[in-house]
DNA sequence: GTCTATATCCAGATAGAC
DNA sequence: GTCTATCTGGATATAGAC
């Protein structure tokens, strides 16, 4: 094969994988790993199911790759947030607003949340997925640090910072699910409601 | 068959159904409907899988019955709460505390939440289940009423009451999931954190 | 009412042709 | 790289014996 064609093939391959991943993400999110058939993914991607095995050796492998992506993106986003030259309160506000906005604008963010939820809740997922889920604690840690900073500078309430981080993530998680359920009807609630958990005065 | 034996058989039958339901609830919650095999349920219930078909004609039927139970209990609880001779703030506080406490003490409450979540999120569930989920709006309505009352008496913040109800349910839902994931390690966060969303002063 | 054995079906995975 | 055809396994559901 000519080098020219080789490069072309690589591009096709990458494009296909992208295509498969994107379709699988939506299917996994809305049907669950177990209920999503390999033919569902291939059909949605307009390829035969035989071909799918050329790119991934099982649907579990696809699931794990997507889960990796999900965590990579979330952790990167949260770490970037932490480094911004903003006050703790502004960081929290930005996290909430960006996320709610993301839910409303593109479904992908919410789908990733649903994926992570499945991986967290369900026992019947690949061991590798279970491992990834454990890195969840990193997300908690970053938010906890921001909260502690906000308590130090006097803007945040003085409840246990770990507890506050737990409630923070649980709430956003719950909203991601609510968004997924509502679909097109989703309207992001006022971010100030959530911020009220952190600060004494809401304005 | 003697009337005596007939009654006895009825009791056995009821006991069996209870047994099956209780085991299925846990399995559905932790594995999902699709990933739960009919033999998982029969094995957990110490009966042959053939016998299970004597009581239910499919696992979907079991799922739907459990979902019915879940909503019946939640709606009953919320309506009872609304009727209590308490201030809106006290009602909200009680709802949060009772629920967090329930999560920590018996798993059943949290399992029901997980079941409802599945039914809400996943497309691949029985039509009958989809119907039941629509009654979810009733839960929102009751809480919205309580919130409006709290705004009228001046104790609650004046954000859109619907939004506040959405965030309220989403947060509790997120905490239910968090509880399920944590299992034995779950420690209920301070209820005042959540209450801070509603009131200006936290004490 | 309860079990074991069996039939049916469908999803996952492979093989081989183009 | 892509498809169609096929094999295999496992889960659902039924039948029949006790």
Question: What order do the helices and strands come in, and which of them pair?
Answer:
The structure is a homodimer of 203-residue chains.
Chain A: H1 3-31, H2 38-44, H3 49-55, H4 59-83, H5 88-105, H6 107-121, H7 127-134, H8 136-152, H9 161-182, H10 191-195
The structure holds a DNA duplex (18 and 18 nucleotides).
Model description:
- The structure is a homodimer of 203-residue chains.
- Chain A has a domain at 59-195: Orthogonal Bundle (Tetracycline Repressor, domain 2).
- Chain A has helices at 3-31, 38-44, 49-55, 59-83, 88-105, 107-121, 127-134, 136-152, 161-182, 191-195.
- Chain A is built from 10 helices and no strands.
- The mean pLDDT of chain A is 94.
- The first copy, chain A, has 203 residues and is mainly α.
- The longest helix of chain A is centred in the N-terminal third of the chain and has 29 residues, at 3-31.
- In chain A, 35% of the residues are buried.
- In chain A, α1 (3-31) packs across α6, α5 runs parallel beside α9 and α6 crosses α9 (161-182).
- Chain A is elongated, with a radius of gyration of 20 Å.
- Helix content of chain A is 75%, strand content 0%.
- The structure holds a DNA duplex (18 and 18 nucleotides).
> What's the CATH H-level superfamily name of the domain at 59-195 in chain A?
Tetracycline Repressor, domain 2
Encode the helix/strand succession of chain A as letters.
HHHHHHHHHH
Helix fraction of chain A, binned, reads over 70%
Largest interface: A-B, 44 and 44 residues
The top-level CATH class of the domain at 59-195 in chain A is Mainly Alpha
- What is the overall pLDDT average of chain A? 94
Keywords (chains A, B): DNA-binding
InterPro entries (chains A, B): Homeodomain-like_sf (IPR009057), HTH-type_Tx_Regulator (IPR050624), HTH_TetR (IPR001647), KstR2_TetR_C (IPR041490), Tet_transcr_reg_TetR-rel_C_sf (IPR036271)
Protein name (chains A, B): Tetr bacterial regulatory protein hth signature
Domain HTH tetR-type (chains A, B): 14-74
């Amino acid at each position: 094969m000519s080098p020219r064609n080789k490069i072309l093939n690589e591009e096709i391959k990458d494009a296909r994988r992208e295509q498969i991943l994107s379709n699988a993400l939506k299917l996994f999110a809305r049907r669950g790993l177990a209920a999503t058939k390999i033919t569902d993914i291939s059909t949605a991607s307009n390829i035969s199911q035989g071909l799918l095995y050329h790119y991934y050796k099982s649907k579990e492998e696809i699931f794990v790759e997507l889960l990796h992506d999900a965590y990579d993106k979330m952790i990167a986003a949260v770490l970037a947030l932490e480094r911004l030259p903003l006050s703790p309160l502004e960081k929290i506000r930005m996290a909430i607003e960006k996320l709610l906005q993301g839910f409303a604008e593109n479904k992908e963010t919410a789908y990733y949340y649903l994926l992570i939820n499945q991986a967290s809740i369900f026992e019947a997922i690949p061991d590798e997925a279970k491992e990834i889920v454990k890195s969840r604690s990193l997300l908690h840690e970053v938010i906890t640090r921001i909260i502690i900073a906000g308590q130090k500078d006097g803007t945040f309430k003085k409840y246990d910072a770990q507890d506050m981080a737990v409630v923070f993530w649980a709430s956003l998680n719950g909203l991601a699910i609510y968004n997924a359920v509502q679909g097109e009807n989703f309207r992001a609630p006022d971010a100030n409601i959530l911020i009220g958990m952190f600060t004494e005065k809401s304005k």
